[in-house]
Design a protein that fits this description.
globular, binds iron/sulfur cluster, mainly alpha, 55% helix
Length: 255
């Protein structure tokens, strides 16, 4: 995409959703940090279910330490990887008290030095809690950037570096939220909903997904055709397995 197309891409996402934000529930930088750590390889909805009662009782690193690892584990046991996450949340809460008087630090280096905090988590906290123009690349952002041609890259770090370079003002602060939400609700992993996509003409992904009714018609036409041909030849109507490298399903070039 050229510069004008990149601007238009974000202008349209912004028009569709003028005030995007994280879907994780939190009340301050500390609870946001905990929620983001808990959200690794889990859905925001599943994290919110566990943190709702937890954050009613626990609002500070001190309170988290008083709760203790066993009771925290019990509180988050519905979230994947809860054992490791409980350990990390207790360890990072202790580190916040020891190093920063219980406050969440505001630099990437300090955040990434905390237990369980990687670059993506640091970027989310810097952006959402402190308003920094950072680009957290999760699975949705990675997929959208590659599929569309907006910021292709083999790794999240490569995609992030490209976003840093190409995203113009006034979209830099909210860009990662628009990309996450676009990936979560429209440019979905298994079947992107191209027919209702606001950036369809800017996106290089092919073939575009047809509207459900057109797909249903084309499936019916295909099935009908196969049915007649099977009847003519007397062969069973079961589809033969696709040959290696020649799958008949939609191309899914990228995650
Ligand atoms: S046109 Fe399709 S593949 Fe491209 S961004 Fe939109 S939903 Fe994703």
């Amino acid at each position: 995409m050229n510069r004008d197309q990149v601007f238009e891409f974000f202008r349209r996402l912004a028009e569709a959703n003028p005030s995007p934000t994280t879907e994780l529930d939190y009340t301050d930088p500390y609870t946001l940090l905990v929620a983001v750590v808990l959200s690794a390889q889990a859905t925001d909805a599943s994290v919110n279910i566990a943190t709702k009662p937890l954050f009613e009782r626990i609002k500070t690193p001190q309170e988290m330490l008083q709760l203790g690892e066993d009771r925290l584990r019990e509180a988050i046991k519905t979230i994947g990887l809860f054992n490791t996450k409980a350990k990390n949340v207790i360890a990072l809460s202790k580190a916040l008290i020891d190093r920063y008087k219980g406050k969440v630090p505001r630099t990437r280096e300090e955040l990434q030095a905390l237990p369980g905090v990687g670059r993506k988590t640091a970027n989310v906290v810097l952006n959402t809690a402190f308003g920094e123009e950072t680009f957290a690349v999760d699975t949705h952002v990675f997929r959208v950037c590659n599929r569309t041609g907006l910021a292709p890259g083999k790794t999240p770090d490569e995609v992030e570096a490209k976003l840093e370079k190409i995203v113009p003002q006034p979209f830099r602060r909210d860009a990662h939220h628009w990309l996450i939400l676009h990936g979560r609700y429209i440019c979905k992993a298994r079947l992107p909903e191209c027919w209702r996509c606001p950036v369809i003409d800017l996106c290089r992904y092919k073939p575009k997904t047809l509207p459900p009714e057109e797909r249903a018609r084309s499936t019916a036409a295909r099935t009908g055709h196969r049915g007649k041909s099977a009847a003519r030849t007397g062969k069973a109507r079961t589809a033969s397995p696709p040959k290696a490298g020649r799958s008949r399903s939609r191309p899914t070039r990228l995650p």
